[in-house]
Amino acid sequence: MVTAREAVAAVVDPEIRVLTIDELGILRSVEEDPATGRVVVTITPTYTGCPAMDVIRADIRRALAAAGHPDAEVRTVHHPAWSTDWISDSGRAKLAGAGIAPPAPVRPRGVVPLTLSVRCPRCGSPETEQLSRFGSTACKALWRCRSCSEPFDHLKAL
Ligand SMILES: [Zn+2]
């Protein structure tokens, strides 16, 4: 039996399909009322203007219904605002594995980075350049590696 939390945590982001909404850090809480079985899910939107949130809400309700929780409500909380720092370490590893350069930490944890260059997810080279502010979606920028000359998506830091 899949719990409500597990069902919701497995929902993938419609734009970054390699990440679940849990790994992306937008899933705040899943609360189930033991008396009524009603589930309340709280999420925080990612990039302003990303049209994915309606899709995510529908996917959450569908996943909960499939797990035996047809009575569900999805709430949206804007504070504190989501940032790319909320992406989990496993989520960052998955992004790199999918050829998407993970965002640099906005608030470095302890260490001040010497460079803000975006590394190529294929060969690891820091010799990269931005081709376009918008990649395959508004959340990503299109970059190119000067070492292996491969284009790649970079999830914008926020
Ligand atoms: Zn490269």
TrEMBL record:
Question: What highest taxon heads this organism's lineage?
Answer: Bacteria
InterPro entries tied to this protein: Fe-S_Maturation_MIP18 (IPR052339), FSCA_dom_sf (IPR034904), MIP18-like (IPR002744), PaaD-like (IPR011883), Zn_ribbon_PaaD (IPR056572)
Q: What region holds the PaaD zinc beta ribbon domain? A: 116-156
Against Pfam families, the record matches this protein to:
FeS_assembly_P, Zn_ribbon_PaaD
The record places domain MIP18 family-like at 5-73
Signal sequence span per UniProt?
A: none
Name by which UniProt lists this protein: Phenylacetate-CoA oxygenase subunit PaaJ
